[in-house]
Task: structure prediction
Amino acid sequence: MIERDSGRTLKRLARGFPILAITGPRQSGKTTLAKAVFPQKPYLSLEDPDMRMLAEDDPRGLLSRFPDGVVLDEAQRAPKLFSYLQTIVDKDMLPGKFVLTGSQQFGLLSGISQSLAGRVGLVQLLPFSMSELKTAKRLCDNLSDLLFCGQYPPLYDRDLLPADWFAGYMATYIERDLRQLINVKDLSVFQRFVKMCAARTGQLLNLSSLATDCGITHNTASSWISVLEASYIVFLLKPHYRNFNKRLVKTPKLYFCDTGFAAWLLGIRDPEQLSFHAQRGALFETLIITEFLKAHLNQGMQPNLYFWRDSKGLEIDLVLEDGDLLKPVEIKSGQTFVPEFLANLEKWSELSGKSDLPALLVYGGEQEMVKGKIKILPWRKLSAKRESS
Result:
């Protein structure tokens, strides 16, 4: 088993919260993580129809069977349990007693906010990070292979072709999760919508354009984006508000949470296609930004991640905020470093008037360098956790 960075966070939270919650996309390893960190706890899956019926019909009786706590997998499938859990932990605030997992933000997090606020330590678990794969000596040597395969755990512990697995993942997502969240009359239209989103990973989110291309209304496009966010398929990177006397873009950027799924949706069926594919740069940017996202979530922190873009088109791919300090990060997929890679970072430095602050360039090559205050890192040497601190 590949050790997860968030395991240490769960153990820390278990010292202070009576309930732990692990949420994230399907197949990101939530159940495996819960069992690994809390091996002594009984395990119940509420995907099991019989167990779910029991939880709905007699929640008090079910929970009384486990006086020392239990792992409840896919807890959002039995929402009545949340109120009974509140009653139990309010009587006995024993830390780390219950562990909940769930793959839908709408279900699990809404139940927590309504009944269990202040009682839950939350970890959001995305697919493997590069640092986790590197520690396990499973990180791909070739960048195209990593972009193509992505980082979902099943592709690292089973003999599976990415194309086969992602086809099943898409079908499962539509048939199970989607039908629980929204009413889609024509599934083919939603499939086209998801593929159109993949074609826009790393771009400003233009809902009007997306709706027009898919033949749906603006409101429907907005609703479907929310569903994709709630299922951890995509996330939106917000623009930073600090303007440096320039007019700023206020639209968020759209990113997929996994490059492999995005590549499959784009019709890429071989890693060699990525060597010259038009979306290689966008997928590489997606990879690096999700690494910083995972670094924050694995520590139980809210991401302090933004991008910066003014009305003249000057853009910084990623801005890390630490109090009043801002650290700009540029991302370039090219394998050969050229001075032009630093142009936007240097312009940012001029506009901010803080040329002495550190900056970072992550690129698709192999050589590590330093140019003034700018650290230049090859993708394999990126440690998002360290760079974020």
Summary: The mean pLDDT is 91. The chain is about 40% helix and 15% strand. The chain has three domains: 6-124, 130-297, 307-388.
